[in-house]
Amino acid sequence: AKAAAEKFDIPHHYESYEELLSDDTVDAVTIASPIGLHYDQGIQAVRAGKHIHFNKTMTTTVDEADRLINEAEARGVKLVSSPGQMLRPHNQAIRKLIQDGAIGKISWATTGAAFGTYHEKERVRTGTDVLSNVDPSWYYRKPGGGPLYDMTVYGLHSLTGVLGPAKRVTAMSGVGLCEREFNGKMVPCDMDDNTLILVDFGNVLFAFVYGTFAGSISEFGSPSYFGEKGSITGTKMNGQPIEFPGAGQDSNSLLPHVKGQHQGMEEAHVWEDIMQLVDLVLDGTPTPSNAEHARHVIDIIESAYRSSDTGQAQDLRTTFEPMF
Fold it and tell me: What is the Cβ-side half-sphere exposure of residue 33, based on CA atoms within 13 angstroms?
């Protein structure tokens, strides 16, 4: 904390989370810790009266999300959760095209992500100081590890933001790589890293969603949609670019608050979601980066693991209201 404060010229740093929450000058927190800690840290912040931005994923279970949402509402605390995929103009344009019947009745869609060696090779993992040798091994362990909570969550927010809430899932899942290497040491892995999900949206509309240790068939965070009159893949419909404001520009630069110096920052989409919280707190501005949408995506993920364990399809018990 001290090293980060010195590097980025931050006036205050804390040796404990409790010390941060006890500071009356702190109005809001952004929680970007390992995902398995999000609920405990979130409920502490709610009870301290702090507004919260959760980096993905908000929690690991629907029960946790329910308790956070209910207690935050009771205490007047605002919640926002990444990833705000429906803030991206191309996803808004795709939703309208599908609603307008541009590719006819949708047959199926797909989205997902592969872990690969993503976290072992990041810039913040390969250095020699405390800000550049951060151990990634929590990504491979329960609770909260694995590619679904960390990576597939982007595509799931896009998919459900475009098509609306899902109804049930069935899945197969397991641990494919039982250990991984980091910094010359072998790390045991107990979190599923190979999950294949069928998602039922109702009205004979299905999606194939995956979180694997290798192999992708769709663009990261951007689902593919297949209909009777054609298909949408990434930002193209039937092979032609989709028209939307800012088409052809860097997608992060099209986010509402990513302007000026923020256009060059890493993880600019997270900055955008933090600013969505600011607008919600100050002006009451509704945001698609809301806790209800995040809870629904968590429901899909948690239900997929439960389906794999039981061998039975699982009905989802949450929903949300798409904004566009």
Answer: 14
Residues 6+ apart with CB under 8 A from 160: 166, 293, 296, 297, 300, 320, 322
Mean pLDDT of 186-213: 97
> Residue 203: which residues within 8 A CB-CB, separation 6 or more?
none
How far apart are alpha carbons 161 and 225 in whole angstroms?
13
Whether cis (ω within 30° of 0) applies to the bond prior to 188 is: no
- Contact between 182 and 137 (Cβ < 8 Å): yes
pLDDT at 183: 87
Cα 308 to Cα 195: distance, rounded to the nearest angstrom: 9
Residue 171 and residue 197 in contact, taking contact as beta carbons nearer than 8 Å? yes
Q: Are 293 and 53 in contact (CB under 8 A)?
A: no
H or E element at residue 202: strand 194-202
Instruction: With H, G, I as helix, E, B as strand and everything else as coil, classify residue 220.
Output: coil
The per-residue pLDDT for 121 is: 86
Q: What is the percent of the chain where pLDDT is above 90?
A: 93
Strand duo 51-54 + 79-81: pairing: parallel
Question: What is the pLDDT averaged over residues 154-176?
Answer: 98
Mean pLDDT, range 18-40, rounded to an integer: 97
Q: Is the pLDDT of residue 271 over 90?
A: yes
Q: Are 140 and 189 in contact (CB under 8 A)?
A: yes
Distance in angstroms (rounded) separating the CA atoms of residues 300 and 172: 13
CB atoms within 10 A of CB 212: 22
Percent of the chain at pLDDT exceeding 70: 100
